[in-house]
Amino acid sequence: MTAGRFNEAIEMYESCLEGFNKNDPFTLANLVEVYYLNENYSKSVEIGGRIKNHKDFLNSEKRVSYALSLQKEGRLADARANFEDMDGPFSNYPHRIAFSHFLIEIGEQDAALELVAEMYSEFDRMDRNERNQKRRLRQQVNQLYQGFQTNN
Question: What is the DSSP letter of 22?
């Protein structure tokens, strides 16, 4: 998938959904992501709908692909509900960063700024080791925050 060979990845994951693996949530979650990356949003939404309540999918980064596919399909309320469900303090930073971008794209800059400021504050309250572990995420949040500062 990381090489951009989405069609091959789709074929491989689809072939894994045979027999007792027919409803394997891990494979289905990977299909949600690869269909999103391949810009087949309707298929991503279809498969994501099958596993949206599975415990392993609920906080998975693959669920971000499902929420973004919902957005691309024009189902903004459903996309937002998925992002809000993944939004929790001191956790799910990749999900929450994606949620911030989603809010910006739909014109809700104030809500996005509030979420970014919340994450920024959380990073400030972490001990040094935890901040170092989450350095890249903190940089992404800082870039978002700086973007708001330059736009005002």
Answer: T
- List the structure tokens of 45: 């939404």
Pairwise CA distance, residues 85 & 17, whole Å: 28
Task: Indicate the pTM of the whole model.
Answer: 0.92
Residue type (1 letter), 15 = S
Instruction: State the greatest distance between any 2 C-alpha atoms of the chain, in Å, as a whole number.
Output: 56
Separation between Cα atoms, residue 95 and residue 58, nearest integer Å: 11
Q: Of 137, 148, 60, 58, nearest to 108 (Cα)?
A: 148
Annotate 12-71 with DSSP letters as a single string: HHHHHSSGGGTT-HHHHHHHHHHHHHTT-HHHHHHHHHHHTT-HHHHT-THHHHHHHHHH
Give the amino acid at 39.
E
Taking the CA atoms of residue 116, residue 121, residue 127 and residue 133 in that order, the dihedral angle to the nearest 10 degrees is 10
Span 30-74, pLDDT tens digits: 999 999 999 999 999 999 999 999 999 999 999 999 999 999 999
